[in-house]
Amino acid sequence: MIFIPLSYLPYVSHRYIATMDEDKAAATIAAAKRGKNARKQAAERKEQSKASSTIAAARKGKNARKERKEMSDGAVRIQSQYRGRQSRARCAETGADQAQRFYTPAEVAKHDRADDLMVSLFGKVLDLSELVRANRGLLVQPLIAAAGTDITHWFDASTHDPCTYIDPETEIEVPFTPMGRFLHCVPVRMQCSSPPSRAMQPP
Question: Which of 28, 102, 127, 148 has the most CB atoms in a 10 Å sphere around its CB?
C-alpha cells in the first residue's frame, strides 16, 4: 500500500483538475470542428442543389421555347402550304399559267451570284441570270457586282436610259457609269451629231 503525505494532496488535486479541463477543452474543440465541417458540408450541398435546380429550370425553359418555336414554325409551314394550294387552285380556275409574284428586298438580295442574279429596277424585279450567262465578259461585271440590289439610280427616271453627263474636257454627253460600262450601255463617242436632250452633272 502506498501512502501519500497530506502535504502532496493539493498538488495532486490540481494536476487532476487540469487534466480534466484539457480533456474537456479538446472535446469541445473537436465538437466545434465537427459542427463547422457539418455546416460547411450542408452549405455545399445546398449550393449544389440550388445550382442543379437552376440548371434544370434553364434546360426546361430552353426545351419549352424550342417546342414553342417548332410548333410556330410548323403552323407557319402548314399555312404557307395551304395558301400555296389555294393560289394554285385559283390559277387553275382562271387559266393563268403563273400567279403574280412579289419580291421583298431581302428575297432579291439572296440572288447575288452570277448564275442566280436578280436586280430591282424602277419597282420591278429582273432575273438577269440568262443574260449574264449568254454575255460573259467585262460588260457584265458591273451587273454581277450589283447582284441582289436595286440599280434604279443607274438610269434616268423619265427616259429609263442610262444616266449621262457632259464631259468637261470634250463637252460631249457621255454615259455616267462610275461602276463601269455595262452591257447595252452606249460607248463614249468622240463626236455628237445632235445636241444632248438631257445631261446630268456628276456628283
Answer: 148
Is 1 part of any domain? no
Look at the chain and report how many structural domains it folds into: 2
- Three-state secondary structure call for residue 174: strand
CA distance 140 to 162: 15
> Which residue is listed with cell 449550393?
47
Q: How many CA atoms lie within 13 A of 152 on its CB side?
A: 9
Same domain, 118 and 173: yes
pTM for this prediction: 0.44
Residues in the chain with pLDDT < 50?
A: 96-97, 99, 190-203
Domain that holds residue 159: 101-203
Choose one of 39, 59, 94: the last residue of a domain: 94
Helices (H), 5-127: 9-94, 105-109
d(CA 196, CA 7) in angstroms, rounded, equals 140
Q: Which of 179, 183, 188, 181 is nearest to 135 (CA)?
A: 183
| Residues 35, 127 within the same domain | no
